[in-house]
Amino acid sequence: MKRLGATPLGVWVIKHVAAPIQRFFYRASGGRLFTSTGAGREVLLLTTKGRRTGKDRTIPLYYLRDGHRIILCNVNPGFERVNPWVINLRAHPTAKLQIGAEIVEYQAREATEMEIALYWPQLVRIWPAYQSHFEKSRQRAIFVLERHPNNKAPEP
């Protein structure tokens, strides 16, 4: 799957076949299935508001944890438009994340240059295709999400 994600055909298969299947089973199982693809690649469901429609849009994504923060990344492969979830999150930075069975609102912001330097190597370890896509397009979006103030963090 890693090599597949670095090709135009692979991106299409992931976007139009694998992601809808993963989203369906993740939700249907209450977050018990399709939460990981192995090799340290954890998956969450990101739900954003459509910037034009206002409708909820959900996509499975790999993520990193940094304490209470969640880090998400999208790299344009150079042959597609910017991913809609990126544009939606920029327009409406409050989003719902489903990690396992838990669904919580988070507030998103784009990562600072210092955070990009910190998280980029970790993101590339999770999904090496990020690096090959970035080398082609020089376009990436890295978001830092923290629990929305209306959601209390779990007790330690």
Shape: globular
Number of strands: 7
Determine the CATH superfamily.
Answer: Electron Transport, Fmn-binding Protein, Chain A
SSE run = HEEEEHEEHHE
Instruction: Give unreliable regions as ranges.
Output: none
Please give a structural write-up.
The protein has 156 residues and is of the alpha+beta class. The protein has one domain (4-147): Electron Transport, Fmn-binding Protein, Chain A (Pnp Oxidase, Chain A, Roll), CATH 2.30.110.10. Helix content is 33%, strand content 30%. It is built from four helices and seven strands; from the N terminus they run αββββαββααβ. It has helices at 8-28, 84-91, 113-126, 129-137, and strands at 43-49, 56-62, 64-66, 69-75, 94-99, 102-110, 140-147. It has a seven-stranded antiparallel beta sheet, with helices on both faces. Strand 5 (94-99) and strand 6 form a beta hairpin.
Task: Indicate the topology.
Layout lengths: L7 H21 L14 E7 L6 E7 L1 E3 L2 E7 L8 H8 L2 E6 L2 E9 L2 H14 L2 H9 L2 E8 L9
Antiparallel strand pairs: 1-2, 1-5, 3-4, 4-7, 5-6, 6-7
Which key terms come to mind for this protein?
7 strands; Pnp Oxidase, Chain A; alpha+beta; 156 residues
Task: Give a quick summary of the entry.
By secondary structure, this protein is of the alpha+beta class. The protein contains four helices and seven strands; from the N terminus they run H-E-E-E-E-H-E-E-H-H-E.
